[in-house]
């Protein structure tokens, strides 16, 4: 066990010696670390959770355990591990537990460490950590930091440009970068080597299906699970229902489809957006729109013969809203009017509807503009909301119609 922990210390020190992009965050790191509560960093695989944790702790004396390690899991002995940590990291102030969800009964062990007064930073790639394990055993004992792939701002930071302070000579570069991000997404591993995007994300997608879903849930029919995942990524931004998917894909039951859809959300691969309705029962019955955590997965896995720039932009806006803290269960929805006009995102604050967001890649065609404007205006009337925005690829102006003022903004400003 001591050899395993010593090897992990070498791994930790090597990781900390590398140069990293400091991610943009609303969190005050010093304030987080000074809290006795567990610091939980969650998000999809390979988005930089471990890096973020290491950067948070870089100048501190901290112990490190990486649970993406077969030897550690195979020879696990909690008491022995704690004794070895004292040996390898004398006088440590914090413990970093990386991908801790791989350890059986991790939540009870973490709860015990918390009771012993250990200051813990935890990373994990599974939303279920919050919905069940964290919510039951560790209620009120943790602070959550959710991480996603690079935002457009961070992608510009990586390329040494400030998205909001562009010089005249940088405009062309910024358009190229914005288009690159739209098509290839923001996974940290590929922002520096775009030629690897498709092969890397293809492998990562398969790894999430096998490791984080099939293995964790003992799924026997992995072919069906994989077919569903490919179908969802190919139909991103479209409404789907479990019953239609069951028929379309020839699954054995609607319950199986629902179960698989939930499994695919757990590792932050897919999100499902409900249709807004004041009546909860009707909201639950309506089809939900499916979104994927990063546009790069569309490029690497979707069956598609066209660019789908409109849907890629919509998916990008959705993930940006998730990054800002909007929740698909409580504060973000889509909406269809009585005349079947649709607005992409209804954002709610408390009981009030705060903003309507429509996404349209290109509104240069008058017919397209009329369709998008008519839709958001009609939905605004029914939902009694006056804060309206249409996000485009590169269009900026204000439109007034039927007493409504609509801000048209490019994605770079949104």
What would you note in describing this structure?
The chain is of the alpha/beta class and 414 residues long. Helices cover 45% and strands 18% of the residues. A 6-stranded mixed sheet has the order 9-10-11-12-14-13. The protein has a 5-stranded parallel sheet with strand order 2-3-4-1-5, sandwiched between helices. A 3-stranded antiparallel sheet has the order 6-8-7, sandwiched between helices. Helix 6 links the parallel strand 3 and strand 4 (119-124). Helix 9 (171-184) packs across helix 16 (295-301), helix 11 (197-214) packs across helix 12 and helix 11 packs across helix 16. The longest helix is centred in the middle third of the chain and has 18 residues, at 197-214. The radius of gyration is 23 Å and the shape is globular. The mean pLDDT is 92.
């Amino acid at each position: 066990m001591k050899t395993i922990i010593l090897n992990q210390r070498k791994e930790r020190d090597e990781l900390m010696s590398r140069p990293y992009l400091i991610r943009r965050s609303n969190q005050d790191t010093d304030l987080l670390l000074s809290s006795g509560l567990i610091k939980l960093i969650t998000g999809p695989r390979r988005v930089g959770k471990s890096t973020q944790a290491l950067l948070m702790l870089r100048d501190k004396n901290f112990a490190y355990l990486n649970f993406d390690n077969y030897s550690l899991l195979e020879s696990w002995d909690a008491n022995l591990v704690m004794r070895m940590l004292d040996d390898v990291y004398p006088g440590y102030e914090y413990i970093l537990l990386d991908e801790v969800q791989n350890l059986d009964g991790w939540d009870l062990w973490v709860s015990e460490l918390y009771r012993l007064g250990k200051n813990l930073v935890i990373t994990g790639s599974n939303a279920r950590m919050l919905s069940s394990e964290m919510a039951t055993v560790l209620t009120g004992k943790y602070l959550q930091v959710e991480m996603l792939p690079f935002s457009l701002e961070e992608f510009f930071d990586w390329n040494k440009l400030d998205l909001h302070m562009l010089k005249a000579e940088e405009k062309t570069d910024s358009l190229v970068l914005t288009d690159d991000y739209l098509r290839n997404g923001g996974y940290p591993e590929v922002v520096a080597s775009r030629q690897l995007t498709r092969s890397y994300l293809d492998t990562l997608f398969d790894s999430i299906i096998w490791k984080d879903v099939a293995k964790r849930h003992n799924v026997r029919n992995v072919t069906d699970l994989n077919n569903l995942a490919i179908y969802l990524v190919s139909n991103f931004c479209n409404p789907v229902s479990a019953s239609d998917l069951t028929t379309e894909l020839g699954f054995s039951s609607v319950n199986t489809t629902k179960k698989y859809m939930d499994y695919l959300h757990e590792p932050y691969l897919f999100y499902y957006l409900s249709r807004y309705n004041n009546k909860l029962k009707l909201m639950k019955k309506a089809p939900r729109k499916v979104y994927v955590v990063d546009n790069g997965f569309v490029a690497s896995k979707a069956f598609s013969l066209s660019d789908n720039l409109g849907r890629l932009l919509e998916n990008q806006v959705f993930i940006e809203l998730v990054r800002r803290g909007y929740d698909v269960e409580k504060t973000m929805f889509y909406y269809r009017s009585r005349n079947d006009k649709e607005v992409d995102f209804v954002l709610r604050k408390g009981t009030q509807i705060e903003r309507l967001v429509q996404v349209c890649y290109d509104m240069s065609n008058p017919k397209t503009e009329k369709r998008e404007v008519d839709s958001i205006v009609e939905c605004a009337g029914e939902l009694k909301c006056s804060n309206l925005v249409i996000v485009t690829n590169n269009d900026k102006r204000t439109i007034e119609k039927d007493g409504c003022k609509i801000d048209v903004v490019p994605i770079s400003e949104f």
